[in-house]
Structures are given as structure tokens and as C-alpha cells.
Design goal:
By secondary structure, the chain is of the alpha+beta class. About 35% of the residues lie in helices and about 45% in strands. It has one domain: Translation Initiation Factor IF3, CATH 3.30.110. Strands 1-3-4-2 form a four-stranded mixed β-sheet. Strand 3 and strand 4 form a beta hairpin. Helix 1 crosses helix 2.
């Protein structure tokens, strides 16, 4: 599956727009990660425990978006974006979304 933040795929033409596809995940750090991350936040700087939670959430949302695109029969996803919102104290929603399309090679 081709996934791009652009609105086109080089060497291909969009032949059908299948609509919005998305993957949504709500995550919070585990007790251990939250405790260690809280201690590190006192010192300041990068907090690897929180970064790991964020990266895992983004990857999970991305994987769910791909699954949704496959379900609608897409060849590619264009205009891909991420969004994150604090859902509740300590819980963040991560959304991966884009436009599912059918593509074909350009006829040159």
C-alpha cells in the first residue's frame, strides 16, 4: 500500500476516490512508564518513556488506517496526516487519516 502526505503519487494517476480512511487509538502510559516519566519530567528534557507511548500510539493508528484502506479496496492513501488530542487527563487520542484512492500507472 502506497501512503503519502502528498495529494498525488508520482508516476500514477488517481482513477477513483474511495473516501476518508482513519485509524483511531486512545493511549495512556502504563503505571511504570508514567512513574518513571514523571520523575524524569522533574529534571526536564526528553522523556523516552512518554516518547515510546506516543510512537506506539502513532504506529497503531497508522496500522488501523491501513486496515481501513484495505477494507475499502484502496491501492493508496494520499493526504495522510496525524492528529493528537488529550482525551482525558493522562489519555491521548491519536488519529491517522487520509484519502483512500485507486491508482493506475500514467500512460506515457
Amino acid at each position: 500500500m502506497i501512503v503519502t502526505t502528498g495529494n498525488e503519487v508520482e508516476g500514477q494517476r488517481v482513477v477513483e476516490y474511495l473516501g476518508l480512511v482513519r485509524g483511531i487509538v486512545v493511549r495512556s502510559p502504563s503505571i511504570a512508564r508514567g512513574f518513571i516519566g514523571g520523575l524524569r519530567s522533574i529534571v526536564g528534557g526528553n522523556i523516552p518513556e512518554y516518547a515510546a507511548v506516543c510512537e506506539e500510539a502513532r504506529q497503531h493508528a497508522y496500522d488501523l488506517m491501513l486496515q481501513h484502506a484495505r477494507q475499502v479496496g484502496a491501492d493508496a492513501i494520499i493526504g495522510t496526516r496525524y492528529d493528537a488530542t488529550e482525551f482525558a487527563p493522562g489519555a491521548t487520542e491519536v488519529l491517522a487519516y487520509g484519502t483512500a484512492v485507486k491508482i493506475q500507472p500514467n500512460a506515457d
